[in-house]
């Protein structure tokens, strides 16, 4: 079994996506996803938020409910400065909501995750995984958040996007290693093939393997953003090749088991 624990769907005609490049400004539907996953041998997926919209969260839960089991869970958006349960009151198909996320990387403040109202909101999200979409300079604040909410469950999206070939790479290594010392966080091997200087990716992936280990790594394609670099099947194949040094059981954990455990699929 393979679980794609990080992908998106969207229709730019229904709402604005300020971050979206022109190449991606077209609909990507459940039907498109089904064709891609079938060709790549992916069995189940986790659908992740794309904009700061409670309406999108509700739509994604409904999409999962109508997907005949393909979309097994949703990571939706909630306001990370307000009590989370109150925002989810009355959410239809809430059983598919497995996690929440805010695009913290868009917050100029590197200490945004240290704000008292954010810590309180994350603490209120018990029972839901908190996906962390952060820049490398926000990793120290993320580590403090994990310490402040030790019973929370966290996922580091896209390995915090290592700044390959830049002066910031050393700080990224330090920040991810420090974050990985907390046992309540796992790391997604996702969104890596669209980074600048992809020829320098392998040492960064080796570092994530080293600090998180195969029991705290989760596979995701980041489709359709990933199509800026590779098609869906190629992302799956290249990720599997990165797992060659692992045992069969470890590869199974990264490709499926860890996602099933983390998101309770």
UniProtKB/TrEMBL annotation:
Family matches, as Gene3D superfamilies: Metal-dependent hydrolases
Domain Amidohydrolase-related intervals: 3-265
InterPro entries documented for this protein: Amidohydro-rel, Metal_Hydrolase, Metallo-dep_Lactonases
Family from the record: Belongs to the metallo-dependent hydrolases superfamily.
Stated name of the protein: Amidohydrolase
Lineage of source species: Bacteria, Bacillati, Actinomycetota, Actinomycetes, Kineosporiales
């Amino acid at each position: 079994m393979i679980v794609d624990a990080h992908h998106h769907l969207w229709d730019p005609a229904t709402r604005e996506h300020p971050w979206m490049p022109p190449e991606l400004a077209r609909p990507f539907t459940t039907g498109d996803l089904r064709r891609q996953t079938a060709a790549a041998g992916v069995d189940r997926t986790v659908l992740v938020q794309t904009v700061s919209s409670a309406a999108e969260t509700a739509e994604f839960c409904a999409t999962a409910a109508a997907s005949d089991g393909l979309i097994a869970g949703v990571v939706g958006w909630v306001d990370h400065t307000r009590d989370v349960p109150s925002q989810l009151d009355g959410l239809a198909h809430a059983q598919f909501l497995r996690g929440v996320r805010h695009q913290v990387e868009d917050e100029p403040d590197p200490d945004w995750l240290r704000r008292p109202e954010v810590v309180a909101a994350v603490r209120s999200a018990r029972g839901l995984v908190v996906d962390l979409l952060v820049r490398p300079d926000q990793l120290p604040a993320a580590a403090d958040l994990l310490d402040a909410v030790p019973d929370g469950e966290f996922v580091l999206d896209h390995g915090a996007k290592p700044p390959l070939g830049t002066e910031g790479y050393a700080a990224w290594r330090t920040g991810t290693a420090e974050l990985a010392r907390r046992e309540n966080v796992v790391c997604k091997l996702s969104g890596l093939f669209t980074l600048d200087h992809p020829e320098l990716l392998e040492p960064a992936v080796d570092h994530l393997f080293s600090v998180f280990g195969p029991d705290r790594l989760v596979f995701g394609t980041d489709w359709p953003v990933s199509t800026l670099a590779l098609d869906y099947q190629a992302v799956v194949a290249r990720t599997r090749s990165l797992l060659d040094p692992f045992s069969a059981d470890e590869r199974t954990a990264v490709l499926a088991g860890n996602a099933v455990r983390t998101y309770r699929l």
